[in-house]
Amino acid sequence: MGPSWLFYLAYIIADGLSSEPQQNDLKSDAEFIKHALPIGNTSGIADILSHRLYDQRLEIAHQFQLKYGKFLKEELASHAGDEMKHLLFALVVPTPVFYATELHNAIMGIGTNENVIIEILCTLTNSEMWAVIDAYEAEFQHKLIDDIKGDTSGDFKHLLVAILQANRDDSGATNKAQAAADALHLHKAGLDKIGTDEKVFYDILGTRNHNQLKLICDEYKHLSGHDLEYAIEKEFSGHAKDGLLAIVATARNLPAYFAEQLHHCMTAGERKNEQLVRILVPRVKVVDTIMQEYSKAYGRDLKTDISEHTKGVFKESILRHIH
Ligand SMILES: *[C@@H]1O[C@H](CO)[C@@H](O)[C@H](O)[C@H]1NC(C)=O
Ligand SMILES: [Ca+2]
Questions:
Q1: DSSP string computed for 159-171
Q2: How far apart are CA 200 and CA 176, in angstroms?
Q3: Considering 59, 109, 268, 304, which has the largest number of Cβ atoms within 10 A of its Cβ?
Q4: CA angle 131, 133, 139 (to 5 degrees)
C-alpha cells in the first residue's frame, strides 16, 4: 500500500464527509441562522437552507429548537420580510405541515382560495392525504374536513368531502374489467343522462388509484368516443369541475399537471411566488421531470422563465433550490 493509495483513501474519506453533513454541521447551520435572524440576513439563511436536503433541514430546525428553545418556523415568521417568509417556512417544516398550513390559510383567509385547495387535495396520494389530515389537526386543533365543510358549498364541498374520506387505493394495481364497469357507470351518470349523478363521479374519481384512473379514461373513450374530460366539462361547473379535471390530469401525468400550473402562475397568476414555492419546494424530487414536461408543452426552459418572472433574493433562492 503506497503513499498515493493512502492519499486516495484520505481523499475518499474527506469527500464523503464533505458531501454528507454531520450533526455538527447542521448544529452550526442552526447557530448561523440564529445570528442571521436579527440582522435580517434572509439571503444567508436561504443560502444555507437550499444547500441542505429535506431531512437535513428538518434536523437544523430540530437543533435550533433544542439549543434556543424556540421554533425556527416561528422565528422566521417574525424576522423575515414578506417576500421570503413563505419560502423559508416551506424549507424548514415537514411537507404535511406545509400543506396543512397552506390549506388553513386558503380556508381562513378573506374569501376562500379554492385554487390552492384543489392544487393540494386533488393531487395527493392517499398516504400523503392522511399525513396532511393528521398534520392539520395537530397544528390547528381542528379537523380539516370540518373546516372544509364550513367554508365551501355545493358540488365543490361534496367533491372535497369525498376526497377527504381518503379512501384512494394507493396500490397502483389495475383491473381492466373494473375500469370498463366504472367507465360505463360514469357515462350513464353523466352524458347519457338528463342531469348528472355527481356522486358517481366523486366516488370513482375520489377512490381509484392513478393507474386505474388512466385505464378508466381509456375505457371511457373507447365506449363513448369522448375523453372523460369532455364529460366533466359538460356536466360540471365552477370549482367542482376544476377539481375533477385536476384529479384526471394528475392521474394522466402529474409532472405535466404541475408544469401547466407553473406556466399559468407565471403568465397569469396572482400570487406567483407563493405558488412557485408550493409546487417546487415539496416536489423537488420530480423537478427534473416537471422541467421536461414544461419544455415539451411550452418550448421554454422553466428556469429561464422563473428568472424572468421573479426578482431579488427570492429569485436566487428558488433557483438555487431547484438547481
Ligand atoms: C449573510 O450571510 C452570508 C453567508 O451565507 C454572508 O456571506 C453575508 O456576508 C451575510 N450578510 C450580512 C449582511 O451579514
Ligand atoms: Ca347529463
A1: HHHHHTT-----S
A2: 18
A3: 59
A4: 95
- Which phi and psi angles does 76 have, rounded to 5°? -65, -40
Cell match 401525468: residue? 253
Is 316 near ligand 1, meaning CB less than 6 Å away? no
Ligand 1: residue of 41, 47, 88 to mutate (most ligand atoms within 8 A of CB) is: 41
Reduced to 3 states, what is the DSSP secondary structure of residue 80?
coil
DSSP E strands: which ranges in 27-74? none
**CB atoms near residue 283 (< 10 Å):** 17
Measured from the Cα of 40, ligand 1's closest atom is 13
pLDDT tens-digit profile of 249-297? 999 999 999 999 999 999 886 789 999 999 999 998 899 999 999 999 9
For ligand 1, whether the C-beta of 47 sits within 6 Å is yes
CA-nearest of 60, 151, 117, 77 to 243 is 117
CA distances from 145 to 133, 137, 161 (A): 8, 10, 7
